[in-house]
Amino acid sequence: LLAQPSPFAREFPEGTRSRSGEMGTFKPGMGWLVAGSAVPVVPCYIDGAHAAFPPGAKLPRSRPIRVTIGKPLDFSKQANDADGWRVVAEQSEAAVRALARASGATR
Predict the structure, then answer these.
(1) Can you tell me whether residue 86 is helix, strand or coil?
(2) What is the rounded CA–CA span in Å between residue 99 and residue 71?
(3) Of 14, 18, 62, 104, which has fewest CB within 10 angstroms of its CB?
C-alpha cells in the first residue's frame, strides 16, 4: 500500500483537523500502517497551515507556510500489534513536537 505504486504517502496522524491550531495526539492507526515494515516515517512539522486553511474555509488563504522535515524513523523491528502501533504513534508525535520546538513554533 505505502511503497507501491508511489514511494510517497502522507498521513495526518491526528485523525482530524485541529479547531484551535494546537497539535493533537497522534492516533495509533498510523502504527498499523508501518509497524514491522521497511517503510520509513519522515516526521514533518507544518507551521502556518491552520492560518492558511482553517476549519470551515472552502479554499486555502494566501499565508506563509513553513515545513520542517526531520530524520526518517525506522519501525521495521516494531511489533505489528496494538502495543507496537501505540509506540509508533508516540515516537512519531514526539519527533514532530521536537521539530515544532526547534522551529520556534508558538503552537
Answers:
(1) helix
(2) 10
(3) 62
